[in-house]
Specification:
Helix content is 19%, strand content 27%. It contains four helices and ten strands; from the N terminus they run αβββαββααβββββ.
Length: 169
């Protein structure tokens, strides 16, 4: 693997079945040129290892194929493709700063998690992903450290539940 970070290892058992039923890929962390500490995580077909575009869901694999490919040790992580079928993905970079600067976002995340949204840490452990049922009125949105998408977007997945339930780690 071509990365220099300590990435979270996927906790496959914590990923909901509804998300497992979506198109899946694996990824390799590739350091970005002139952006220290930033990495590209392009989706790769879990069977062929070839880069796939988010506009071609038929070239992605299954959850089980991504899990098996990850087990080979050739990939940094796994991820899911949003296809406009009612699953919305929320990507929050640098959750510590975001929650500090925008406490209403932290409150919204807690409310969403309590209402059944799947929320988990990003592969770096510093960001957050939420998967909720819904539909956006237009293409994805990005404002600062917050991105929201529902179609043609690849999101990395870890299964590291956030916040951990009482009694958890």
């Amino acid at each position: 693997m071509s990365d220099t970070k300590n990435w979270l290892l996927p906790e496959f058992e914590n990923i909901p079945d509804e998300i497992k039923a979506q198109p899946w890929a694996v990824w390799i962390a590739e350091p970005r040129t002139n952006q220290l500490g930033k990495f590209n995580k392009a989706p790769l077909n879990p069977v062929t290892g070839r880069k796939v575009g988010t506009d071609k869901p038929e070239l992605f694999g299954t959850f089980e194929e991504a899990k098996a490919a990850y087990a080979t040790g050739k990939y940094t992580g796994i991820g899911v493709l949003l296809t406009g079928n009612g699953i919305v993905g929320v990507d929050i970079d640098d959750m510590k700063t975001t929650f500090s600067e925008k406490p209403e976002i932290k409150e919204w995340v807690a409310t969403a998690a309590n209402a059944g949204a799947h929320s988990e840490k990003s592969p770096s452990g510093t960001g957050l992903r939420l998967f909720i049922r819904g539909k956006l009125p237009a293409k994805g949105r990005k404002v600062g450290h917050l991105e929201i998408y529902d179609d043609a977007r690849f999101l990395t997945v870890t299964g590291h539940i956030y916040p951990r339930k009482k009694g958890g780690a």
